[in-house]
Amino acid sequence: MAVDLARVRSRFTLVALILPAIVVAAAVVIQVLALPSLPGVVATHWSFDGTPDGFSPAWTVPVLTAVLGLGVPGVLFGVAFRSLRRGEHGAAYRMLGAVALGVAVLLPTLMTWSLVLQVGGADAQLPALVVVSSLLAGVAVGAVGWMVQPNAPWHPVATHTPDALPLAPGERVLWTRAVTVATAGRVVLGAVVVVTAAVAVMVAVLTASTWATLFAGAIAVLLAIMVVASTRFHVRVDADGLTATSA
């Protein structure tokens, strides 16, 4: 069955770019409307028990919401859409669209809720229910984003088996080549790095723990290094067998 690539691209654009932009815009509008009723400085960092331990000017919350809420989906959309335009498709791209929408719901919901709770100078305590509800909302909407996109699995085309290479007595053959992970694989790995970096930013924003921030940042950096080191290899086949080294 032929895959409707135009429909795949249009639904991916809807889920990964248009809907996140609408969600983030709505969240920013709510936050801006709440600014006159907020103190000049609001809680923006909380300890793990929900007690505020870091504060920033109130206007920074809508700015950060726009940057993170649009930035993460924008990066995921950018790394995937170029490949989709070339005709690639599959579950990896469908998952990226769902993740982009889920993140665009999770971050603005959490940041908007934490800000609105402080309207009128109210207690800046961040209930666990807010965090859990925001997370569940992101997961649920991300699942909807997955279902909205068409199921277009990638079916590789079988290739023929090459003929054996004739060799004269005493001749040896050496084969070398630089190989790269398939585009879909690079897209998924890149998306994992982006999401991990976003989590590190969330840890920095929502907690005042230097150690937690450094730990999350170190994981993101280490993961990025591992991805870079595992996407391209030099492959050599000779009398000693097959050797693959990171390029």
Order of helices and strands: HEEHHHEHHEE
β-strand amount:
5-15%
Number of helices: 6
Question: Describe the biggest sheet?
Answer: 3 strands, antiparallel
Task: Give the gist of this structure.
By secondary structure, the protein is an alpha+beta fold. The chain has one domain (5-155, 172-246). The protein is 60% helix and 13% strand.
Keywords:
6 helices; elongated; three-stranded antiparallel β-sheet; 247 residues; 60% helix; alpha+beta
Walkthrough of the structure:
This protein has 247 residues and is α+β, with helices and mostly antiparallel strands. Helix 1 packs antiparallel against helix 2 (60-85) and helix 5 runs antiparallel to helix 6 (210-229). The strands form two sheets. It has a three-stranded antiparallel sheet with strand order 3-4-5, with no helix packed on it. The protein has a two-stranded antiparallel ribbon with strand order 1-2. The model has no long low-confidence stretch (mean pLDDT 80). It is built from six helices and five strands. It has one domain (5-155, 172-246). The radius of gyration is 24 Å and the shape is elongated.
SSE layout and pairing:
Layout: H1 5-34, E1 41-46, E2 52-57, H2 60-85, H3 91-116, H4 128-148, E3 175-180, H5 183-206, H6 210-229, E4 232-238, E5 241-246
Antiparallel strand pairs: 1-2, 3-4, 4-5
Helix pairs in contact: 1-2, 1-3, 2-3, 2-5, 3-4, 3-5, 5-6
